[in-house]
Amino acid sequence: MSFANPEAFWLFAVLAAFILIALYNFHKKNKLLDAFISSTAYKRLGIRSGREIDFFKTSLITLALAFFILALAGPQWGEQFENVEIRGIEMVFLLDTSNSMNAEDLKPNRLDVAKQLIGSIVDNLQTDYVALINFAAVPYVQCPLTTDYEAFKMMADASNISPSEEQGTDFGRGMLLALKSFEKTQGEHRVLILITDGEDQEKTWQQAIGELQKQKAIIFTVGIGVASGAPIPIKNEKGEVTGWKKDKEGNIVKTRLDENTLIQIASQTGGQYFRLTDPASIDTFINSLKHYERSVLAKKVQLHKIKRFHYPLLIGLILLLVEFLLSEKRLQWKKD
């Protein structure tokens, strides 16, 4: 035998306190009765004088409570097979890892804040499949579809800025790779979450949108950064800032959040745009994902223990019924 909720046994400590109080009251009542009536007179009382029935009724209540606690603990024994449907959605995160995500207009920088957001979203999921694609000019799968959220978060946290030979930002290539990553569901149960500052150098996303629309995949976009922009730091191997990215004329380049592009991408696929710097907006986004309609992603057979809580529950109810039906007979003198 095992128990589904063994922590319920702590309630026996409360029951023990109840027993001690009941015994104290019973002793006090006996003491008062002894002071009120002599032992000779008590012997002439009816068999059910009240003293014995009080003790019996209290014992029944105590036993009933004990069985109720046992029922709360969830006893289970025996095993049976059960068909289980796993419901969820396939959710692919598309994370911008271009140099502009090194900008520090969000602390510590845009990329780290984006990774924190991904972790927060995943912490609110239960049976959804999640995948992560990192992209700049060249996209790659950082983590394939999985329900192992801890492993997924470790892979997301390990995401870094793409190497210099892969720099430039191409939303279109990232979206098409994300579409290939979907496996199990169709239609509205495919969700793509694009997390970026919106600066797309290649401008190929409109062609990719057409393919996403055909397969009814929905894109939510999350804007990282501020509209006023920030310089792009150049870091050495130790992660230390050694300078700032400059254009051909030697001017410091500023990277700005391009919200218009992200709004267009989301609206054309039935999704929504959210700005990361707006906490209320992000809370709304996470809640909308939590309440998103789930479809059956997989079916499996599970072997589990059979719940038997109804047995102690039934015994407890019977004991309470017996206690309720017992009446306390008033004190009556025996006839000589």
Structural features, described:
By secondary structure, the protein is an alpha/beta fold. It has two domains: 2-74 and 308-325, no CATH class; 85-298, Rossmann fold (3-Layer(aba) Sandwich), CATH 3.40.50. The protein has helices at 11-36, 39-43, 51-72, 110-122, 149-157, 171-181, 205-214, 259-267, 279-290, 310-325, and strands at residues 2-3, 75-88, 90-96, 129-135, 140-146, 190-196, 218-223, 230-231, 233-235, 241-244, 254-255, 273-275, 295-307. Helix 6 packs parallel to helix 7 (205-214).
Structural class: alpha/beta
Q: Which residues sit in consecutive blocks of at least 5 with pLDDT less than 50? A: 330-334
Number of domains: 2
Task: Please provide the ordered H/E string of secondary-structure elements.
Answer: EHHHEEHEEHHEHEEEEEHEHEH
Strand content: 15-25%
Q: Which architecture of the largest domain would the CATH scheme give at its second level?
A: 3-Layer(aba) Sandwich
Coarse morphology: elongated
Distance between the termini: 57 Å
